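Key result, reporting period 2: structure in, sequence out.
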């Protein structure tokens, strides 16, 4: 049973609908949002496939609100956000337009990051669906006139977007910022740039892709930035005592994290080490064995 309400009105024009897909990676489940207060509204994210989507709760909300979905917007390609599209199309309407950002390949792709889901599932493929591709700075409108700005923020995923509602001062953060924990990433440099971009929205509420809403959004973004910098410092301290492998570092730095999440943590450490190598703070000793040392 989820620790969050399946349906919660966040503001007069935003309703959160929780997907029924709790797991170690998704927490209580995926937060999806029905945005607007007119007859035709925007749906952000859809949950996982079939019964783990939001479709059962969404049908009830649309009925009680006497409204329809004008468009479905996906924050990023991960299965717990995009996976419920087909269930919604089957039960609510196959003609609802679909929007997302194109996947933009990073200069370096890390094994296990961007190849598969963080959970290990294969990347979902929806050949039969037509996507309208969004770009940074695009503005979506609801039928009541609310404007929603698209903000391209890769780092957790290579197509990741946030949505910004100026009139509500709400930032929908997708999985770049979570309500109850830090997040996994697939490109460290891109992610840090995205956090700096999110910081420019200043004081606001953040409605995340997982976990509770965040009242002081600016404070949370700054915490995430500082947390990543702290990880850099911790890795350097680990290497002060001698050569270390990525797994050696993960066992110490993520000792309080369930082992099922250690593969994702290993990717984060590998990306951070690459940045430290670029900054000439660290060298790689044995590329085959992933052994590193402090310069």
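The corresponding designed sequence is given below.
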């Amino acid at each position: 049973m989820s620790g969050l309400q399946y349906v919660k009105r966040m503001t007069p024009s935003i309703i959160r609908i929780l997907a029924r897909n709790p797991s170690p990676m998704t927490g209580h489940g995926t937060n999806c949002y029905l945005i607007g207060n007119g007859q035709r509204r925007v749906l952000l994210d859809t949950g996982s496939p079939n019964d783990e989507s939001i479709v059962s709760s969404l049908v009830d909300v649309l009925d009680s609100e006497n409204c329809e979905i004008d468009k479905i917007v996906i924050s990023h390609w991960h299965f717990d956000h995009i996976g419920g599209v087909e269930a919604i199309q089957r039960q609510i309407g196959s003609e609802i337009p679909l929007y997302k950002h194109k996947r933009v390949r990073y200069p370096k792709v890390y094994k296990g990051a961007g190849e598969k889901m963080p959970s290990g599932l294969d990347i979902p493929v929806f050949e039969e669906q037509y996507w309208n591709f969004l770009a940074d700075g695009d503005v979506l409108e609801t039928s009541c006139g609310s404007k929603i700005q698209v903000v391209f923020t890769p780092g957790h995923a290579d197509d990741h977007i946030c949505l910004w509602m100026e009139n509500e001062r709400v930032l929908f953060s997708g999985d770049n910022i979570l309500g109850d924990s830090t997040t996994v990433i697939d490109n460290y440099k891109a992610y840090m740039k995205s956090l700096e971009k999110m910081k420019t929205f200043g004081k606001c509420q953040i409605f995340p892709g997982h976990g509770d809403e965040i009242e002081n959004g600016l404070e949370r973004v700054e915490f995430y930035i500082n947390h990543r910098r702290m990880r850099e410092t911790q890795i350097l301290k680990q290497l002060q005592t001698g050569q270390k492998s990525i797994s050696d570092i993960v066992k110490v730095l993520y000792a309080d994290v369930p082992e099922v999440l250690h593969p994702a943590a290993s990717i984060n450490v590998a990306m951070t080490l690459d940045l430290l190598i670029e900054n000439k703070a660290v060298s790689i000793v044995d590329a085959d064995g992933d052994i590193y040392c402090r310069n």
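The chain has a mean pLDDT of 89. The chain is about 30% helix and 25% strand. This case is discussed further under Risks and Mitigation.
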